[in-house]
Design a protein that fits this description.
Length: 217
């Protein structure tokens, strides 16, 4: 339709559905839990969105043992990870983008870690800080210790050490920011790419039994 027809009172052209942007050679993924803006945004817009997400990480610190002291040191004036765009001590999990699990995760504490992770909005990230959180550390053979927080929630970055220095946490944050800068939400939540992450059903299954209602007793 040319401009003369449009000015002459002809019907306005109907909007055209735009295909989802794809990287060259990439397989088409069916996005899940993504709105049309996230699916149809051009690549420059996705770069801007990732940039904003990268430098506005609200941290929910799940401190369980001595590594939590090193996290506090990293957030204080000497190391000051706020200069990296990381805001410590979010009011709660529903306002957080990043959970840092620092310390020994016990089997008794595991349901609380999982429940608070489920309360965080997407997209959300996890840093496992210290040997105990990574694999159980010196207590790996204890009957009451979970052999790594990745047994119950997905982990994006592992920071080794017993305990790690604050500089190690800063490096872990930089590694996470590099990952966020190059990620695609379609790939992160697509059906094929989700194979490496626990499913929604797995993250909402059985560690914590719901309280019984009066009619079930």
């Amino acid at each position: 339709m040319d401009m003369s027809e449009a000015k002459g009172g002809a019907a306005a052209p109907r909007p055209v559905s735009l295909p989802e942007p794809q990287m060259p050679g990439a397989q088409r993924l069916e996005p899940q839990r993504l709105g049309p803006l996230a699916r149809l945004a051009p690549e420059p817009m996705k770069v801007v969105l990732n940039w904003g997400r990268r430098y506005s990480l609200w941290v929910f610190n799940f401190g369980l043992a001595c590594c939590a002291i090193e996290f506090i040191a990293a957030s204080m004036a000497k190391h000051d990870f706020i200069r990296l765009g990381v805001i410590p001590f979010a009011p709660g999990p529903r306002q957080a983008d990043l959970m840092i699990v620092s310390g020994t995760v016990t089997d008794k504490m595991a349901p609380a870690v999982k429940r608070l992770y489920e309360q965080m909005p997407e997209p959300k990230y996890v840093i496992s800080f210290g040997a105990c959180s990574n694999c159980g550390g010196p207590y790996w053979d204890s009957y009451s210790v979970t052999k790594g927080v990745d047994q119950i929630i997905p982990v994006d970055v592992y920071v080794p050490g017993c305990p790690p220095r604050p500089e190690a946490l800063l490096q872990g944050i930089l590694k996470l920011q590099e990952k966020i800068a190059r990620e695609s939400l379609g790939e992160r939540y697509g059906s094929d790419a989700a194979a490496g992450r626990p499913s929604t059903a797995a993250l909402t299954s059985g560690l914590v039994a719901p309280p019984a209602t009066p009619g079930e007793r």
